[in-house]
C-alpha cells in the first residue's frame, strides 16, 4: 500500500488582506500522478509556491514526508520543482547544468557527474551531454528541467505547465517521462496544467481549484475501472493520410477510423478503447501508444485532440466557465 508523502490542511494565503487561496486540503501518495486544474487566477501557482516553500501559508499547514512547512530547508531536500518559467544558463552544457544542481543538493563532484550522465540518458538527452543549452529546443529544455527535478531523488515533484508550447510529438514524449517519474521512480507528482486532455490521459487523480477554493478532489477514471472508449482527432498533411491510416489500423486499441479531407490537410477521427485486459495499466496508455505509433512512423502531426470528455464537462460545471 502506498504511503502518504504530502499532507495539506486548510491552506490559506492572503495578499494585502485579499484571500487568493482558502482552506485547501488534500494528500498525495507515493507514486501518484495528480493533475491540478483551474482557470487563470484560480490559485494554482500560489499553491505550488507554498508547497515549494517560496510562500508561507497565512493559515493552515502542510508537511512533506512528515516534515512540517515550518522547516523549509528540510522540505526542499524532499521536493523537486519545475516552474513554468525555468531559467537556463545558455552558455552551459546540459551536463554542467545538472552537475550544478546536483552539487547544490549535496552530491560530491564525481557523484554529481555520474548522476548527471544517468539522468541525461534517462530523459533521452544522452547524445546532448556537451551541447550548450542555447542550442536546445524547447522540448529538450523541458526534458532537462524534468531531469533537474530528480537530482535529489525527491519524494514529491511539483510541475507547472511543463508541456506548454510543445508540438504534439513533444507533448506526448514529455507526458511519458512525467508518468515514468511517478510509476518507475515512486515520486508523488503534482502536475499543474490547463490541458484537460493531458490531465485525463495521464493522471490518477484530479484537483480542481476555482476562486482559490478546492472544488473537486476526485479519482480520475482509469483503465482498471472499466473499458473506456475515446475519440482522438488527428490532423495530418494530405499526403500523409494514407500512411497514418495504415499505421493506426495496426494498433490493437483502434476500433474505427474515418478520414475527412480538406484543402491542405486530412483529419482522422479514431475511436480507441482503453481496456484493462489489453494495456499495462498505465494511465492513458492506449491513447499515448496510438499517438506514439504515429510519431515513431514519422507521420507529421499538425494537431491532435480528444473529443469532449466527462472531465471537461465536470470542469466547466465546477468552475462555471
Describe the protein's architecture and organization.
The protein has ten helices and 14 strands. It has helices spanning 44-51, 72-76, 94-104, 109-122, 138-148, 168-183, 196-202, 241-249, 285-296, 310-319, and strands at 4-15, 18-29, 33-37, 59-64, 67-68, 79-82, 156-160, 188-192, 205-210, 213-219, 228-237, 254-261, 265-274, 303-306. The chain folds into two domains: 4-88 and 136-219, P-loop containing nucleotide triphosphate hydrolases (Rossmann fold, 3-Layer(aba) Sandwich), CATH 3.40.50; 228-319, Alpha-Beta Plaits, CATH 3.30.70.2190. With 321 residues, it is of the alpha/beta class. Helix 5 packs parallel to helix 6 (168-183). It has a six-stranded mixed beta sheet with strand order 6-7-8-3-9-10, with helices on both faces. Strands 2-1-4-5 form a four-stranded antiparallel beta sheet. The two termini are 37 Å apart.
Amino acid at each position: 500500500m502506498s504511503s502518504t508523502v504530502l499532507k495539506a490542511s486548510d491552506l490559506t494565503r492572503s495578499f494585502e488582506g485579499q484571500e487568493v487561496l482558502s482552506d485547501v486540503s488534500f494528500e498525495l501518495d507515493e507514486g501518484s500522478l495528480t493533475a491540478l486544474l483551474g482557470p487563470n487566477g484560480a490559485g494554482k501557482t500560489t499553491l505550488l509556491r507554498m508547497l515549494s516553500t517560496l510562500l508561507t501559508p497565512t493559515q493552515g499547514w502542510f508537511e512533506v514526508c512528515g516534515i512540517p512547512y515550518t522547516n523549509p530547508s528540510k522540505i526542499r531536500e524532499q521536493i523537486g520543482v519545475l516552474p513554468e518559467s525555468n531559467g537556463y544558463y545558455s552558455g552551459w552544457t546540459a551536463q554542467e547544468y545538472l552537475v550544478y544542481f546536483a552539487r547544490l543538493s549535496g552530491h560530491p563532484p564525481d557523484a554529481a557527474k555520474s548522476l548527471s550522465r544517468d539522468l541525461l540518458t534517462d530523459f533521452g538527452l544522452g547524445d546532448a551531454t556537451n551541447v550548450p543549452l542555447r542550442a536546445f529546443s524547447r522540448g529538450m529544455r523541458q526534458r532537462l528541467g524534468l531531469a533537474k527535478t530528480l537530482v535529489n531523488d525527491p519524494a514529491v515533484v511539483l510541475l507547472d505547465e511543463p508541456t506548454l508550447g510543445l508540438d504534439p510529438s513533444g507533448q506526448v514524449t514529455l507526458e511519458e517521462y512525467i508518468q515514468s517519474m511517478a510509476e518507475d521512480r515512486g515520486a508523488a507528482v503534482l502536475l499543474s496544467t490547463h490541458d484537460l486532455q493531458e490531465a485525463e490521459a495521464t493522471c490518477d487523480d484530479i484537483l480542481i481549484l476555482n476562486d482559490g477554493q478546492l472544488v473537486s478532489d476526485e479519482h480520475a477514471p482509469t483503465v482498471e475501472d472499466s473499458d473506456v472508449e475515446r475519440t482522438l482527432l488527428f490532423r495530418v498533411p494530405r499526403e500523409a493520410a494514407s500512411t497514418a491510416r495504415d499505421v493506426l489500423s495496426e494498433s490493437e486499441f483502434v476500433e474505427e477510423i474515418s478520414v475527412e479531407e480538406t484543402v491542405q490537410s486530412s483529419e482522422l477521427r479514431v475511436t480507441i478503447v482503453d481496456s484493462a485486459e489489453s494495456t499495462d495499466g498505465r494511465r492513458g496508455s492506449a491513447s499515448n501508444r496510438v499517438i506514439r505509433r504515429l510519431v515513431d512512423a514519422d507521420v507529421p502531426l499538425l494537431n491532435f485532440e480528444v473529443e469532449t470528455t466527462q472531465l471537461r464537462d465536470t470542469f466547466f460545471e465546477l468552475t462555471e466557465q
